[in-house]
Design a protein that fits this description.
The complex is a heterodimer.
Chain A (H helix, E strand, L loop, with lengths): L15 H4 L4 H4 L4 H29 L10 H36 L8 H23 L15 H4 L4 H28 L12 H33 L12 H35 L6 H15 L14 H29 L8 H24 L1 H7 L3 H31 L1 E2 L2 H27 L14 H31 L1 E2 L44
Antiparallel strand pairs in A: 1-2
Chain B lengths: L8 H32 L15 H24 L12 E8 L2 E5 L5 E2 L2 E4 L4 E7 L4 E5 L4 E5 L5 E5 L5 E7 L12 E6 L1 H9 L10 H12 L25 E6 L2 E6 L2 H9 L4 E3 L16 H13 L2
Parallel strand pairs in B: 1-5, 4-10
Antiparallel strand pairs in B: 1-2, 2-3, 5-8, 6-7, 6-9, 9-10, 11-12, 11-13
Helix pairs in contact in B: 4-6
The chains are: A mainly alpha, B alpha+beta.
The structure holds copper (II) ion.
Chain lengths: 542, 308
């Protein structure tokens, strides 16, 4: 790979002569940009596996009557799919990859606060991911508990829950260290003059996320250790026979895992908040409202975990309180959507791929949000809980939301990260195919769920056949869309056209340095004198 | 289409409809403006962006109005849910026990059944619990669902208001038989229910009374979650043609062939770890030691004998 770094005369972080050759120069690097890409490589490899598993599971449901996969295989597959997608892909995705790469640049820093710790987090993450793979082939074989590890089943099953839970524990630990790193970076390493309210909103979203990571992750860490203790030493705290309560497990699990949803979605919101101003050539509308809504989401989001348990058996008071708070937490998300759309008003809009991905995100995330409200309403949740409705909802939020925002961010920052440009029309085509495939795949799930199709079932009643078929056809459209998109990006990585430092005409700090960025990001730390997203005479168009 | 066969269904459907319509309207507005702005303010038509100031009024409006809307949604959801409290005095109580992988319904007179038979138009209270792991008791046509949690009894009540047969499903993943943890709610006129309720425990559908009881037992104890009687393998081998057939099993790691006689079947039920049928996974078949009596097992075997 040749890289164009001559514009500023500084050395690119990708430059081989200056950074050393070979794999060691990567896996021993403490450069936040390289670490970001290291995360990306692990994440996307696992993503490919989990997509294939998802595709296979869909295919296996092509006919009722359990003809294709055995129950044991199907149960293992949906668990592995969930564990990989949630813990190894979606949770680290935006913060660990794009966050690592761009947070220091966006706030005018040379690196994160603790570069070595950053590398260590990656190692812990990789060890966790590798152990998750090892757990498939050792002990009792692939786990079959679902990614939620509900007791008592997770204690009772003969499959290798112990190792799998430990791997998730490690991954959580890594995510927590990243959170600590980001928060410290934001507190201590902002460029001179970058007051809190001059920070780009992606940084704000990572800040809110960081707090959730630090405060919520220990809860799941302990919970998973309790499962391990229960399986290995018989110290089982959730056993009703000895005065325990299996619902306590669910409380502890969701106390982390619900905020984890915000670990997944807040950075996604941050990414699209960066993209919209650049392509409408206008400051973001309602900067303060967007920044504050991130904090509000992080705060209220920590208090709504009970809405996963409306049918588990909680007190009536707990039920209405959790329901009420769930509705409240929807509001700041709504505020963000309205501000994004308002930011387009009066702009000078270019429908480049990143913005189109952002539109897809807003649309799909809104559907995810509204179906969330359906589940928040107690009476209706009773019907849809633990059915395909939830499966549809969570894919709209995590895939349509977080993953589409991640794709938007990749298309936005690709020229910055690599100094090359992908084929924009192919990117648009990929988005169109994915968008159609996505809705064909996941929308029927709302109907199926409402009519009573339980999730995590390798077989189903004949009346669900039509819905399943439509959904399966959707997967045949979505997956080719993903393949087109990734092929286009990987091709561009090697053969893409060289691109100037600021191809989109953005005004945040990353666009003021060369592409790919120099090793130390800035030759001279910039001094910030205004809010971000100020377009005008000084904004350089190339 | 999903029938609405309980007193709860209409209210739930109403809340759903309200949220869906609000959602369509709001997402419609958002999408409309996204497209409208993209066209109107496209760079080609509008090369210079306008300067637009933030507006506190707008921020307040689109914070306060959504709060109002979601509070209405919350209220409707709660109002139509509260029913769970205040069970009517005349409600009939049925105990529901979930186990891997079947449902057991126990009536006030001690009657046990694998299906939930109820009189139409009468309030019923279900006391739901589990004998092993967590299950989810779900009757879509009634819009009711409640998890069955070991060590806990969760109650719900409702009035089935249309006769008919409705699916009962398990919604909480509970192991290999989860997808087939099915049953039916059969809603009949009160007179029919009374006859059913008072008749003797097992209907002798077969000449051989022991075999008939055996058939009832394998349903009641959830064997049919893993074993079929029609020749197709499920999680475990089928019972059809099992009796006195030659079977390859793995005992202490060694393969051998045995005849499926009474002693073999009994051992399989009480201590499934001893002989593993070749081609099936180990540790799956639970032991029924202490749960099935010697007589139960004889009756099951009598039934298996009839499956030629
Ligand atoms: Cu179950």
């Amino acid at each position: 790979m040749e890289h164009n770094t001559k514009d500023t005369g500084s050395v690119s972080y990708l430059d081989k002569t200056a950074n050393g050759r070979g794999i060691l120069a990567w896996i021993l690097s403490t450069d936040h940009k390289r670490i970001g890409l290291l995360y990306a490589m692990v994440m996307f490899s696992f993503f490919a596996v989990a997509v294939s598993i998802g595709f296979t599971m869909r295919l296996a449901l092509i006919e009722p009557g359990h003809k294709i996969l055995s129950a044991r295989t199907y149960d293992a597959l949906f668990t592995i799919h969930g564990v990989i997608m949630i813990f190894i892909f979606i949770i680290p995705s935006i913060p660990a990859f794009l966050g690592n790469f761009f947070l220091p640049i966006l706030i005018g820093a040379k690196d994160v606060a603790f570069p070595r710790l950053n590398l260590l987090s990656w190692y812990i993450f990789v060890i966790g991911a590798v152990l998750a793979v090892v757990s498939l082939f050792t002990g009792g074989g692939p786990i079959d508990t679902g990614w939620t590890f509900y007791v008592p089943y997770s204690i009772q099953t003969g499959t290798n829950v112990t190792l799998a839970a430990f791997s998730v524990f490690l991954i959580g630990f890594s995510s927590m260290l990243t959170g600590i790193n980001f928060i410290t970076t934001i507190h201590r390493y902002r460029a001179p003059g970058m007051k809190w309210f001059r920070m780009p909103l992606f940084a704000w979203s990572l800040y809110a996320t960081g707090w959730v990571q630090i405060l919520a992750t220990p809860v799941i860490a302990i919970t998973l250790l309790l499962i391990i203790a229960g399986r290995m030493f018989g110290i089982y705290l959730f056993d009703p026979a000895s005065g325990g309560d299996p619902l306590l497990y669910q409380h502890l699990f969701w106390m982390y895992s619900h905020p984890a949803v915000y670990i997944m979605i807040l950075p996604a919101m941050g990414v699209v908040t960066e993209i919209i101003p650049t392509f409408s050539k206008k400051p973001i509308f309602g900067y303060t409202a967007i920044a504050m809504s991130s904090l509000a989401i992080a705060f209220f989001g920590s208090l709504v975990w009970g809405h996963h348990m409306f049918t588990s058996g909680m007190s009536q008071t707990a039920k209405w309180l959790f329901s009420l708070l769930t509705f409240i937490v929807a509001v700041p998300s709504g505020v963000k959507v309205f501000n994004w759309v308002a930011s387009l008003y009066g702009g000078s809009i270019e429908l480049e791929p990143p913005l189109l991905f952002t539109f897809a995100f807003i649309f799909l995330f809104s559907i995810g949000g509204f179906t969330g409200l359906i589940q928040g309403a107690l009476a209706v949740d009773v019907q849809v809980h633990d059915t395909y409705f939830i499966v549809g909802h969570l894919h709209y939020v995590m895939f349509g939301g977080t993953a589409f925002a991640l794709f938007a961010g990749i298309h936005y920052w690709f020229p910055k990260m690599f100094g090359k440009m992908y084929n924009k029309n192919v990117a648009r085509l990929a988005l169109l195919v994915m968008f159609i495939g996505f809705n064909t795949l996941y929308f029927p799930m709302f109907v199926l769920g409402w009519e009573g199709m339980p999730r995590r079932s390798y077989d189903y009643l004949p009346q669900f056949h039509t819905g399943q078929l439509i959904s399966i056809v959707g997967s045949w459209i979505l997956v080719p869309g993903l393949i087109i998109m990734f092929t286009n990006l990987i091709y561009a990585l090697f053969k893409g056209e060289k691109t100037p430092a600021n191809p989109w005409g953005g005004v945040t700090l990353e666009w003021k340095i060369s592409s790919p960025p120099p090793r130390e990001n800035f030759e001279e730390i910039p001094v910030i004198t205004s809010r971000p997203y100020v377009f005008g005479a000084e904004a350089e168009h190339e | 289409m999903l029938p609405d066969a309980s007193n709860i269904a209409k209210g739930v459907d109403g809340v759903l409809l309200f949220i869906v319509i609000t959602g369509i309207v709001i997402i419609g507005i958002v999408t409309f403006f996204m497209i409208f702005f993209s066209v109107t303010y496209n760079k080609r038509r509008h090369p210079e962006p306008d300067s637009v100031q933030d507006s506190t009024v707008l921020e307040i409006v689109w914070t306060v109005v959504p709060i109002g809307i979601v509070l209405v949604m919350f209220y409707l959801g709660w109002k139509n849910y509260k029913f769970i409290q205040g069970v009517p005095k005349n409600a009939m109580t049925v105990r529901v026990t979930g186990r891997q992988w079947s449902w057991l319904f126990t009536y006030a007179n001690g009657k046990n059944s694998g299906i939930l038979e109820l009189p139409v138009g009468k309030p019923v209270k279900l006391d739901i619990t589990s004998a092993d792991v967590i299950h989810g008791f779900f009757i879509p046509a009634f819009r009711i669902k409640q998890d069955a949690v070991p060590g806990v009894v969760n109650s719900i009540w409702f009035i089935p208001d249309k006769t008919g047969t409705y699916e009962i499903l398990c919604t909480v993943y509970c192991g290999i038989g989860h997808a087939h943890m099915l049953s039916k709610a059969v809603i009949v006129p009160e007179a029919d229910f009374d006859t059913w309720y008072n008749e003797k425990q097992q209907v002798p559908v077969q000449a051989n009374a022991a075999a008939a009881r055996g058939e009832g037992l394998i349903k009641q104890y959830g064997c049919t979650g893993c074993h079929t009687v029609d020749g197709s393998p499920l999680v475990g081998p089928t019972y059809k043609g099992l009796y006195n057939s030659r079977i390859t099993v793995i005992t202490n790691g060694k393969e051998r062939t045995v005849t499926a006689d009474d002693a073999y079947i009994k051992l399989c039920i009480l201590d499934p770890g001893v002989n593993l049928v070749k081609g099936f996974p180990p540790h799956v078949m639970p032991s029924f030691k202490g749960r099935l009596t010697g007589r139960d097992i004889r009756e099951i075997i009598a039934y298996v004998k009839t499956l030629k």
